[in-house]
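Suppose you are handed only these lines of text.
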Amino acid sequence: MFNYRLIRRVLLILLLLVFGVVKSYGYEIFYPGEKKSVTTYDYGLFIGKARNSESITINNVKIPTASNGAFAHSVKLEDGENRIFIRSGYSTKVYNVFKKTEVPKIQSEIKEFDKRTVLVKNDTTPLRKAPEDVGFNIVSYLFKGTRIVINGADDEYYRVFLAKDKTAWILKSDVEECADGSIASFINMNSQKYKNANVQTISFTKNLPYTVEDGEKEILFRIYNPELSDTSVYTLNILKPKRYYYNVTLQDGAYTFKVSEVPKTYEGCTIVVDAGHGGSQNGAMGCLGDAEKDINLKIALELQQLLKQKGANVVMTRECDGMITLKDRIKIAKVNEADIYLSIHMNSIGNVAFSHSKHRGTGIYYFNRNSKELSEILLKSITKSAGTKKNGIKTASFAVIRPASYVGVLIETAYMINPSDTLLYTQENFARNVAEGIINGLDEFIEK
Ligand SMILES: [Zn+2]
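From them, the structure of the protein bound to zinc ion can be written out as follows.
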C-alpha cells in the first residue's frame, strides 16, 4: 500500500523547491560582480535591484528599497575572511570578501648630496611640494630640457633646489644627466596687453624652472636660476580679471605667461563638453545595472544642442560610445583653446560606508582657484533645474580639470548607487533638465 502521507510530504518539498528556485530571481546584485574578492578597503558596497514586493536583508540587516527596487548597502569589513549573506525569500547569495591589511609605508630618510644639474626629460613634468604623487602638491609643470639643480633624494624622488629656502620634488625617472656646465643668463623682459589677455615674456639663454602662484588679485610667476646664485629669482605679477585662466609656454629659454579673460558672450567662447568614460570604460555601475557612460553621453548631447543654439563654439570629446583617454580629452581642449571645460559624470562611492543622505545629489568638483565660482553657480542651477539634492562643491585632483588653461569643472550629476537618485535620473527628461540647468548657470557665469 502507498504511504500517502510520505507522498504528500515529498510533493510539498518539491513544491517548496520549485517555489524557491523561482523566488531566487527575486533580486539581482550588480555590484560586486564576483562572489569572491580581495580588498584593502574598510567597506564592501552591495548594490542591486529587487522585485517590488521583495524585502532584502544583508547580514540580517533589512535594506530599504526604492519604488523601482533599487537598493544599496555597505558592509564594514573585518581583517581576513568576511562572509556576506544576502537574503530574499528563500534565496540566499553568499559573498566572500577577503580584507588584506595594508602594510604602512616606512618613512625613508632624505639622502643629502652635493648640488648638480640635471635636465627634465619631457613636457608637462610635475614639480611637487612633497615627494609623493598627489595632485594637490603640484607647483608647476616643467618643460622638456629645463635645467634643474638637485641636492637630495627620497625614494623615487629628487629634491630640487630652486632658491634659498625654496625646494621642490621631481621623480627621478623624469630627469636625465646634463653635460652642459654653462650657466644661464637673463636676456630681456616684455609685457603686452590685448583685449582679452595680459601677456608677459621673459628670456634667458637656457631653460630655467618656474613656479606659479594664483594670488588674491594677481598671478605670480617665478623663474629661478639657482646655478647663478641662491637668490636669483625673477617674479612676474600679472593682474587677473574676474573670470580668467592662464597659459605658460617655453621656447628656447623664453617663457610666455598669458592670463586670459573668459569671453563675456557665448559668441567667441569655446566650450568643451566632455562625456565621461565610454567604450570599454563603463564608469560607475548603478543599482539598476546601468552604465554611467550612457547617461553622461545623453546629458552631453543635450548640452551640445543647447550651447549651439546659444552661439557658443562647442567641442565634444565624444559624440558616441567610444573610448578616449584622459590625455586625449585634455589635448582636445588645448588644441581648440578652450575657455570652459565641462566634464559630465555620474557619482558612485569607493571604500566608505554608504549613506543614503550623504551620497546623494549633485556635486561639482574643481581643481584650480579660477574654477570655484563656476562650480558654485552650477551647483545652484543644476539642482534647481534637475531636482537633485545639493551635494556641494569640492576640490579634487581629476586629470581633466587640473589644467589652469581653462575654467574646468567636473559635474557629478547624481549618485548611481543611491536608490532615491535612480528614481530621478531614469526619468525621460532628466538629461534635458540637467543640460538646461548647466545653460542657466553658464548664462550667469558668462553674461553677468
Ligand atoms: Zn565618472
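What can we learn from it? The domain at 105-261 is CATH 2.60.40 (Immunoglobulin-like). The chain has six helices and 28 strands.
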